[in-house]
Amino acid sequence: MKNKVIYLDNNATTQVDSQVVEAMLPFFTEKYGNASSMHSFGGNIGKDIRNARSQVASLLGARPDEIYFVSCGTEGDNSAIFSSVLTQPEKRHVITSAVEHSAVVATMNELKRRGYDVTVLGVDERGQISLDELRNAIREDTALISMMWANNETGTIFPIEEISAIAEEHGIQFHTDAVQAVGKMPINLKELKGIDYLVCSGHKLHAPKGIGVLYVRKGVRYKPYIIGGHQEYGKRAGTENTPYIIAMGVAAQLAQENLEKEQTEVAALRDMLEKELIARIPDSRINGDTVHRLPNTTNISFKNVEGEAILLLLDGHGICASSGSACTSGSLESSHVLRAMGVPFEYAHGSIRFSLSRYTTKEDIEKVIEVMPGIISRLREISPFKK
Ligand code: PLP
C-alpha cells in the first residue's frame, strides 16, 4: 500500500486551500472577461479584483491602494529593489543581509554589476543581524536597506520594527521580503511606517503558484519593473491574472482567520517534533533563533550524515521535507544561510528543514518522530565521516 504523503515542506510551497480553488474557478469559465474592457462583462471583474485587494490589505494592515498584484515573490523583490535605486539615482549604496533568499541575493549581485556598492551584513549563530552594525553601515548615499522578515530555511524572524525604524530615522527606504512571514505571524503595516516596500507570495499561503503581492507605501515614488498597459494603477503592466488574484484574496482572508491557529496549534506540533527529535537522536541541534522564529519551521542538524540521504529515506516513508545542502556540480555545498550562521561543516551537511502548515496533524508528526531515529542511525553506520 502506498504511504499517505506527510507534507512538511510548506516553506517550499503549500497545498491550495479548497475554498481558494472554489473561489477562483468561476473566473476561468463564467467570469473570464478582461477587467479593462468597456463592456460590463469584463468591466465588472474590476469589482472582484478590488475585493481581493482589500482582503490582502486587511491581512497586512495596509490600504488597498498600496497593494499591487505581481506574478510571484521573486518579481515583487526585483521590482521593489530596482524601483528604489532607480528613483534615487544620486544614491549608489544599498544594505542587505547574508541570509536573504536568492530572489534578493541575485538582484543585489546585479546591482553590484551595475556599479552599486552593496554592504552585506553578517549574522550571528542564531541568524540575527546586529543593529549596531546596521547603523554603522549607513552612508550618506544609502538608497535602500533590504532585509527579509523571516528566513525561509530557519524561520528566524528579523527585528523588522527596529530595522524599519532605523531606516526611517535616516531617511532611507526599506524593503522587506516577507514571503515567509505573511500568513504565519501578525503584520500591521499601519504601525510600521518605516516599511516602504513589502513582498509576499501566494503559494506560501495556500494560494496557487504564480501570484504575488507588492506593497508600496502611499507616497513612495515608484518606477515600474514591467511596463506596458496601465493595469495595477500603472505600477505593473499586463492583463490581470484574475483567477489567481481572486485566489490570493481568499487565501489572505483564510490566513487572517487562521493566524491564531498558526501561533498556537501549528507551533505546538513544531515544538513537539523538535523536542522529541533532539531528545531521541544524539548529536543533533537546532539551527536558528528559537525565540524569534516562525511558528511552523524547524531546522535541525544531525551530525555526520548527509541531508540529502536523510531526505531520500524520509521520502521512502512518504515524508516530504527539505535539506540545507544541495549537490551542485558534483561538490556538496551547504546552504549559504547555515554557513553565514557559522554552523559547523559536520552539522550543516546534515540539516533538515521541516515546515508545517495548518493542515499538519499530530499523526503526521508522530510518524516522523517514529522513523527519524532509525534513519539517522542507519546513515551514521555507513557514514564516511564515522570515526
Ligand atoms: N523570498 C523568500 C524568503 C522565499 O522563501 C521565496 C520562495 O521560496 C521567494 C522569495 C520567492 O517567491 P516565489 O517563489 O513566489 O517567486
Description of the molecule:
By secondary structure, the protein is of the alpha/beta class. The protein folds into two domains: 6-14 and 258-382, Aspartate Aminotransferase, domain 1 (Alpha-Beta Complex); 18-257, Type I PLP-dependent aspartate aminotransferase-like (Major domain) (Aspartate Aminotransferase, domain 2), CATH 3.40.640. Helix content is 39%, strand content 16%. It contains 13 helices and 15 strands. The strands form four sheets. The protein has a seven-stranded mixed beta sheet with strand order 2-8-7-6-5-3-4, sandwiched between helices. Strands 9-10-15-12 form a four-stranded antiparallel beta sheet. A two-stranded parallel ribbon has the order 1-11. A hairpin with a 2-residue loop joins strand 13 (325-328) and strand 14 (331-334). Helix 1 runs antiparallel to helix 9 (242-280), helix 4 packs parallel to helix 9 and helix 5 (73-86) packs parallel to helix 6 (102-113). The chain is globular. It binds pyridoxal-5'-phosphate. The site of pyridoxal-5'-phosphate has 14 residues, from helix 5.
Total number of domains:
2
Structural class: alpha/beta
CATH superfamily of the largest domain: Type I PLP-dependent aspartate aminotransferase-like (Major domain)
> What is the succession of H and E elements?
EHHHHEHEHEHEHEEEHEEHEEEEHHEH
Named CATH architecture of the largest domain:
3-Layer(aba) Sandwich
